[in-house]
């Protein structure tokens, strides 16, 4: 099934100049970039984006980090893109992630884990709309 998903290149990766490395891994896996921008979100926006984690022990740290530097949200498209992207990213915590995944190879810890990816079709739709309007998404690159 052709799907879209949202990834975010997170502050720890931006600070370590890993933008190209991360995008290359997704492109080499056959995913297509439909939209991309660099933005810095407020703490309040970070809390809204991660609302499903409100109340968890790591929420404060997570939202402070996400709003600490510019980030790069990207819309990716491809066959089963949501699961495919999650496989390329690896488990949330780099110590649990398989060798060769982004988080195993690049992440610093369970919070500073370099990249975010949507976990379901509903969250992909919500997260894409959080960052992009329809004019910013290039459908003709879908595939
Ligand atoms: P992400 O895929 O962006 O989605 C939620 C984020 O919360 C996750 O990546 C991590 O950055 C963070 N996170 C999830 N679980 C934990 C945890 N147990 N401890 C610290 N941070 C976590």
UniProtKB/TrEMBL annotation:
Annotated signal sequence range: none
Catalytic reaction equation(s): a 2'-deoxyribonucleoside 5'-diphosphate + ATP = a 2'-deoxyribonucleoside 5'-triphosphate + ADP; a ribonucleoside 5'-diphosphate + ATP = a ribonucleoside 5'-triphosphate + ADP
GO annotation (BP), single: UTP biosynthetic process
Listed cofactors: Mg(2+)
A GO molecular function held by the record: metal ion binding
Predominant location category: cytoplasm
Active site, renumbered: 116
Protein name per UniProt: Nucleoside diphosphate kinase
Lineage of the organism: Bacteria, Candidatus Moduliflexota, Candidatus Vecturitrichia, Candidatus Vecturitrichales, Candidatus Vecturitrichaceae
């Amino acid at each position: 099934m052709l799907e879209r998903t949202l990834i975010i290149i997170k502050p720890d990766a931006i600070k370590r100049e890993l933008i190209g490395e991360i995008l290359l891994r997704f492109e080499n896996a056959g995913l297509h970039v439909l939209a991309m921008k660099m933005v810095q979100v407020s703490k309040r926006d970070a809390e809204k984006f991660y609302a499903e984690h409100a109340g968890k022990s790591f929420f404060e740290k997570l939202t402070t980090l996400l709003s600490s530097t510019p980030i790069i949200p990207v819309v990716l498209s491809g066959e089963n893109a949501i699961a495919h992207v999650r496989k390329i990213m690896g488990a949330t915590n780099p110590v649990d992630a398989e060798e060769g995944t982004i988080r195993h190879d690049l992440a610093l810890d369970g919070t500073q884990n370099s990249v975010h990816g949507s976990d379901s079709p509903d969250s992909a739709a919500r997260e894409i709309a959080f960052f992009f309007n329809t004019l910013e998404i290039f459908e003709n690159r879908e595939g």
